[in-house]
Amino acid sequence: MSASTANTIASYTGKKLGSLRSERRWALWTAYASLIVATIIFLAPPFYMLVTSLKSSSEISNLSGNPWLVRAPTLENYKELIANPLFRGFFVNSVIITLCVVAISMVISVLAAFSLARMKFWGSQALATGVFLTYLVPDTLLFIPLYQIVGSLGLLNSIWGLILIYPTLTVPFCTWIMIGYFASIPKELDEAALIDGAGWMQMLTKIFIPVALPGIIAATIFAFTVSWAAFVYPTAFVTTPEHMPLTIGVVSQLIRGDTFAWGQIMAGALMAALPPVVVYAFLMDYYIAGLTAGATKG
Amino acid sequence: MAQVHLRKVVKEYEGGVQAVKGIDLDIADHEFVVLVGPSGCGKSTTLRMIAGLEEISGGEIDIGGTVVNDVPPRDRDIAMVFQNYALYPHMTVYDNMAFGLTLRKFDKGEIKRRVENAARILDIGMLLDRKPKALSGGQRQRVAMGRAIVRDPKVFLFDEPLSNLDAKLRVQMRTEIKKVHQTVRTTTVYVTHDQVEAMTLADRVVVMNHGKIEQVGPPQELYHHPKTRFVAGFIGSPSMNFIPARLEETSGGLVVRMTDRAVLPVPASRTARYAPHVGRDLLFGIRPEHLTEPHPNEHRPNIAHFEAAPEVVEPMGMETLLHFWVEGHEICARFDPAVEVAPGKPAAMAVDMDQMHMIDPKTDLVL
User: Fold this and answer.
1) Considering only alpha carbons, which residue of chain B is nearest residue A212?
2) What is the DSSP letter of B258?
3) pTM of the predicted structure, to 2 decimals
4) Looking at the complex, does the CB of residue A210 fall below 8 Å from at least one CB of chain B?
């Protein structure tokens, strides 16, 4: 190689490398800037809730000073809420509703997804698409017909009515997640199980459920979030405080006419948000794995 | 242990596509039969029909004296090893191997005895507590075989079990499979597209093409006496050379004329067989290993000589492959690596005419 050629290559490579480095630096700066903006946007409301929940009513109503700072922090709002039997009732209702809905949703969607993904029968493909389409119908459209159904069953103003109808929100999406997850499990695994002597039910319980655990956890988190945070249905179907879940209980009991107990509302909302935060913090990896199943070759 | 019989077995998919077109096959007790053929020839479908993983569209499958057409896989008493191992990822090696026995409600002591015995045969005793993800490809394939062995089934079915392994490991596992079969003597049906695997493992090879059986026979028989052009070309690596040629009668006996310059004498022992085809346009078939450098002290009869200039020379270490063209057809010769050859330089060649084949291009049958 001649000296001039070597110089040309060296200068070319150097220029290329330099440009790559500056491109990468630019990309990093953009990424950091976007992330900082996103973090501020998403964390500002909960931070404001926290700040407000630590203020006394007089401090909240005092408009002088910076509203983002607490001058005399107090846990009074939290103490009052926890001491309030109504609030504890809301919490218990939410827990019962969520546990039941998650259990019902998972049983139905795991069985449905297994049969739709694995037992190839006439119309299974159309049914799988149909299941997903039902998820696209907004709950605000459904609550009037559902009101009639729940009413005719005598379950209005009862947590059991909510337990009956929440799965209409959770089952389609959970089934869809599970279909994707089950479909990503190699076909040979069920064939090996069939030859080993397993029936469909054994195949599901001994092979598919353990293998698809990340998907099941993702679906469970979804069902949990939907039923814990549901607002439209309980607002429409529950009228008395003893049957209310947290979401509407806090709002209906802490707002009296035009009087807002802001400190307690914020404390209640924060405490209500705590279980989903804990669940997501511990199971985030499973959630992502479950939602992206089948996206890449395993 | 059992015999397996396939009678007029057909597999037809929706839309009338026939993957398997009425095949008959008898597999003896303890026999190791390999189904071999190119992709889409119906070999895997046939195996899956024996396993019960595919319903059959016609005919009859008999395992151990029982027609199993409508018997589910679990009741056929077969075990299958898959190409991608199909190990249960959440179970340990021990549990993977014990799974089938647990489902069949075997006593725990018996399960332990069988798993340990299979682990000893396959030399995987130290892996029993590991999960599949902690195993190499070869180890996973051993576990898959162990899962089959513990069941002590009537028939082992292997569906391209070595395809996912690298070349070196494939050779090693091939020996391993042969060793296991010699130990357990279970009737085995093995599917592969690799003719080397087929030749080395099988008691009998079944060559399939387009959903039909082309030929069934011991490896040596298929190699030396192929019945069709497909079998002649499929068995052997590199494949047999085919050159359009005409059989002619001369005063010295029959000859094969490829070009005006390439005329090869037919051995006297073949005269009677080929006489009816004199004057016909046929295909002359010769394997690369029968087209070699001439030997100075040649004692074999019926060796014909000619000269050709190779266009490509491929040194393989143990042999050198020479590629040259005759009448637009590529021909491969197999030379001793010690012989010096160079592209474009004419090389003397010797054809062992005792190993020649004549093929009717209309019927593709070997004459």
Assistant:
1) B90
2) S
3) 0.78
4) yes
